[in-house]
Write a structure and sequence with these properties.
By secondary structure, the protein is α+β, with helices and mostly antiparallel strands. It folds into 3 domains: about 50 residues; about 150 residues, 3-Layer(aba) Sandwich (D-Maltodextrin-Binding Protein, domain 2); about 100 residues, Periplasmic binding protein-like II (D-Maltodextrin-Binding Protein, domain 2). It has 12 helices and 13 strands. The strands form 5 sheets. Strands 5, 8, 11, 12 and 13 form a 5-stranded antiparallel sheet that branches. The chain has a two-stranded antiparallel ribbon with strand order 1-2. Helix 1 crosses helix 2. The radius of gyration is 20 Å and the shape is globular. One of its GO terms (molecular function) is DNA binding. Pfam families: HTH_17 (PF12728), PBP_like (PF12727). InterPro entries: HTH_17, PBP_domain, SinI_DNA-bd.
Length: about 300
């Protein structure tokens, strides 16, 4: 592919082997960078290459060993949501290089504890307090002064087949014999939300058909449900809007936060990150995408 900065929707459809409607959907969600010349949407080749590289990284499980290999190379931002990819792009534009590590919330906090990443992201629900993240940060970063900064709120729920033919509406339904699920990987916020609710109900994962099948992305589990290979999966509302053939049953409003060590509060990298997420430009970009509540973006939740 020749280096071009004025690729059309048709070009991108051919390059990525997806429909034009899917290209427009990716633009609307903010996943695919674009710009306008008059009324025409255009793309740069560098942005498309970065998008493809991000997909490859997201589809590759990242182990603690792999993270440890990148930790000394710079500022590492850890988490799986597309909002973090866009945040890292903003940081690079502000001359603050930010590497990305794509692992779930629980392992993200452990990696921060082990000095393998600079910033962790988390959306971990604690059933004892009905709160997000704070109890986990205290438990998984013992003795480490830390700062939790709010990024966004999202709606978590069930991906079900169009029309919800099996009427899956509550956690109790996972105990039914006629339900097959597809699961997220251990340590992800969605998996913790599921397991905590199953524990409260006295339902064992081993008794649920498909519980052992783990997949590392919201988009893929939604696609499995759309294909009819599973009846239900846990994920965010935003992704449900991108996958045809499924409905979304809202269950829980979750907090998605960033966590870093308090000793890093004055570093140029953290200063740049906070400046970006507190800016009207960054907030406005996500207020139009849908699926993100940006009202308290950038506010400090707590300092330990």
């Amino acid at each position: 592919m020749k280096s071009r900065d004025e690729l059309s929707v048709e070009d991108i459809s051919e390059i990525l082997k997806i429909s034009k409607s899917k290209v427009y959907s990716l633009i609307k969600s903010g996943e695919l960078p674009s710009y306008k010349v008059g009324r025409k949407i255009r793309f740069s080749e560098d942005d498309i290459k970065s998008y493809i590289k991000g997909l490859k990284q997201a589809s590759t499980p990242v182990t603690h060993k792999a993270i440890g290999g990148t930790a000394n190379k710079g500022f590492v931002l850890c988490g799986q949501d597309i909002i973090l990819d866009i945040l890292s792009n903003y940081m690079r534009q502000h001359n603050t290089p930010a590497l990305r590590a794509y692992i779930g919330s629980y392992d993200s906090l452990i990696a921060l504890y082990r000095n393998q990443v600079s910033v962790a992201s988390a959306h971990l629900w604690d059933s004892d307090t009905d709160t997000y993240n704070v109890p986990y940060v205290r438990r998984l970063l013992p003795g480490i002064p830390a700062v939790i900064v709010h990024l966004t709120c999202r709606i978590q729920g069930f991906y079900v087949a169009k029309g919800n033919p099996k009427n899956i509406t509550k956690w109790d339904d996972f105990g039914r014999d006629d339900i097959t699920m597809v699961n997220r990987e251990q340590g992800s916020g969605s998996r913790v939300l599921l397991d905590e609710n199953l524990r409260l109900l006295g339902i064992f994962g081993r008794d649920i058909s498909g519980y052992e099948k783990e997949i590392q992305s919201h988009l893929t589990v939604a696609s499995v449900v759309a294909s009819g290979k599973a009846d239900v999966a846990i994920g965010s509302e935003k992704i449900a809007k991108q996958v045809e053939g499924i409905d979304f049953v809202p269950i829980k409003k979750e907090r998605y936060d960033l966590v870093f060590k308090r000793e890093d509060m004055g570093t140029p990298e953290i200063a740049s990150l906070l400046s970006i997420i507190r800016s009207d430009t960054f907030r406005d970009e996500f207020s139009h995408i849908g699926g993100y509540d940006t009202k308290d973006m950038g506010k400090i939740v707590i300092e330990f």
